[in-house]
Amino acid sequence: MSLVEEQLGGLMRKSLAGDAGAYRVLLGELGVLLHRYFARRLGRDSADVEDLVQDTLMAVHAKRATYDVDQPFTVWIHAIARYKLIDHARYRRIRVTVPLEEDEAVFASDEVEAAMARRDLDAMLDTLPAQPRTLIREVKIEGRSIAETAEKTGLSEAAVKVGVHRGLKALAARFGGAKHP
């Protein structure tokens, strides 16, 4: 866990527990990091940088109850800032580019995309009943064999195969995947 994650995540957890002082410090720290994030992408002289910082801080304030304390805070704030930047670019009809050598994460490490994908995958799997969700996690995510999963769950190998297949079919139907024959 990075120092930034530890510090900001701790402040966020304290603020959610009712510590107003921690919340003021959090917003101040975020303001600095957000300013740097948007300035890097829009240019230091852009008048829009401060507007984006304020919009993002307002979004954090409005959505702070949606933050899951078991997830990395920097991933959550990075997603909000990124969506604000995308909305701004769409509104202004501009294309934002960043040189590859400057494309280092301001808020989080290289794990941002993986953590966001993991969060999305967990949300999708949570829509399934417990058994197919467990079977899909064991076989498709953890990489266990059908035999290992059958032994671990007490199901037959055929039941594991059917459970995984039906679970994936339900996910595909629910989230617009390809139709299975």
TrEMBL record:
<protein>
    <submittedName>
        <fullName>RNA polymerase, sigma-24 subunit, ECF subfamily</fullName>
    </submittedName>
</protein>
<keyword id="KW-0238">DNA-binding</keyword>
<dbReference type="GO" id="GO:0016987">
    <property type="term" value="F:sigma factor activity"/>
</dbReference>
<dbReference type="InterPro" id="IPR014284">
    <property type="entry name" value="RNA_pol_sigma-70_dom"/>
</dbReference>
<feature type="domain" description="RNA polymerase sigma factor 70 region 4 type 2">
    <location>
        <begin position="119"/>
        <end position="171"/>
    </location>
</feature>
<dbReference type="GO" id="GO:0003677">
    <property type="term" value="F:DNA binding"/>
</dbReference>
<dbReference type="InterPro" id="IPR013249">
    <property type="entry name" value="RNA_pol_sigma70_r4_t2"/>
</dbReference>
<dbReference type="Pfam" id="PF08281">
    <property type="entry name" value="Sigma70_r4_2"/>
</dbReference>
<dbReference type="InterPro" id="IPR013324">
    <property type="entry name" value="RNA_pol_sigma_r3/r4-like"/>
</dbReference>
<dbReference type="InterPro" id="IPR007627">
    <property type="entry name" value="RNA_pol_sigma70_r2"/>
</dbReference>
<feature type="domain" description="RNA polymerase sigma-70 region 2">
    <location>
        <begin position="36"/>
        <end position="93"/>
    </location>
</feature>
<dbReference type="InterPro" id="IPR013325">
    <property type="entry name" value="RNA_pol_sigma_r2"/>
</dbReference>
<dbReference type="InterPro" id="IPR036388">
    <property type="entry name" value="WH-like_DNA-bd_sf"/>
</dbReference>
<keyword id="KW-0805">Transcription regulation</keyword>
<dbReference type="Pfam" id="PF04542">
    <property type="entry name" value="Sigma70_r2"/>
</dbReference>
<keyword id="KW-0804">Transcription</keyword>
<dbReference type="GO" id="GO:0006352">
    <property type="term" value="P:DNA-templated transcription initiation"/>
</dbReference>
<keyword id="KW-0731">Sigma factor</keyword>
<dbReference type="InterPro" id="IPR039425">
    <property type="entry name" value="RNA_pol_sigma-70-like"/>
</dbReference>
<comment type="similarity">
    <text>Belongs to the sigma-70 factor family. ECF subfamily.</text>
</comment>
